Amino acid sequence: MTETEPTPASSRRNVLILASSLALNMTAISIMVVVSALVGQTLAENKALATLPFSLQFIGTMAISFPISMLMQRFGRRFGFTLGAMLGVFAGAIMVVAVYLGDFWLFAFGNALVGAANGVAQFYRFAAAEVSSAVFRPKAISLVLAGGVVAAIFGPELAKWSIDLLDPYIFAGCFVVVMALNLAAVGMLQGLRIPGLTLAQRKETGRPLLAIVRQPTYIVSVIGGISAFSVMIMVMTATPLAMVACGHAFEDAAFVIQWHALGMFAPSFVTGHLIARFGVLNIMFVGVAMFAGCIATNLAGIDVFNFWLANLLLGVGWNFLFVGSSTLLTETHTPAERGKAQGLNDFLVFGIVAVCSFAAGALHSIFGWAAVNLGGILPAVAILIALVWLRGRRRAALPVS
């Protein structure tokens, strides 16, 4: 597949298509956030396995990250992104059948495929960076993520609307909507025009992967991505379970997740500007502070207000850390190295996140809601230490005036 060199107008079109496609993908994921653990709890004989299907989404994301990155290095972004959206269509169909049959393990497999589709969509942010100047790059990344605002508004609403769509098979209608959203993304992505690597760039392998990984900026970008997702996933995954256990209605849980998703993506309209104005490390420090506020709020009470405020802070903290980490990652590799550098980053991030997601269900089932929140302290402290370390190295490298 050959792709033409983009003009400034086509670059803007590419960012718009990527943002729209991410909006469709994340709307499907938002539906999964609201219903996956609840469906898992309904279908699983062992209730401690309730969040296993949702955890397998991150196994799917991890498993596909490196191969899809290398595949797009060879065949281009549009080919890989289309393949990912088709996986989402197939996943939705499998989950409809799983609910119809009452098959927990088939539902878990469908979740893994949803994760694979989402793993491909995670590369939208890198594609946006590739069609942008160095100055505009953090803004392009954040603008693509801003497409998730649509998901924040419509995902939980679609979950509530479709929960009884195929009554008496509760939740099956949600997965029909997941199919439709991914099918719409397939069509949207056909307008994408991002130039592939030249023949010379494809032949060039760049530095060894170990040399890339050993860069302090790369190390901190990976730790940032892991921390951003680990804290967010642990708390978010267990939130619907905790709210239902506390006697709150499903509609209340959907409302909280809706505001959480808004917190994740609405700041993207300004995060790139904030990074350009105050520096990427400062914005990431603010993200850590947001996580601290989230944990403190959840530990302070179990009213709907506590869940709402904590998940809002959680979303904003994730946004600042994730956009910041993605921006740092783009500083660490050449075009010829992007496949392996980006692929390894997402492989590491989502591999560890999968463990955290499953741990959230187990912690909540065995030790309760407070344990889930306390478990988020370790990754938050890890990125705090990493940021202090990188800032110290950068200041030491500055010329003495």
Describe this structure in words.
Helices cover 81% and strands 0% of the residues. By secondary structure, it is mostly helical. It is globular, with a radius of gyration of 20 Å. It has one domain: Up-down Bundle (Growth Hormone, Chain: A).
Task: Name its key features.
401 residues, Growth Hormone, Chain: A, 81% helix, 18 helices
SSE map:
Elements: H1 8-43, H2 52-75, H3 77-101, H4 104-121, H5 124-130, H6 137-145, H7 148-162, H8 172-189, H9 199-203, H10 209-213, H11 216-245, H12 250-265, H13 268-278, H14 280-300, H15 304-330, H16 338-366, H17 369-375, H18 377-397
Helix pairs in contact: 1-4, 1-5, 1-6, 1-7, 1-8, 1-11, 2-3, 2-4, 2-16, 3-4, 3-8, 5-6, 6-13, 6-15, 7-8, 7-12, 11-12, 11-15, 11-16, 11-17, 11-18, 12-15, 13-14, 13-15, 14-15, 14-17, 14-18, 16-17
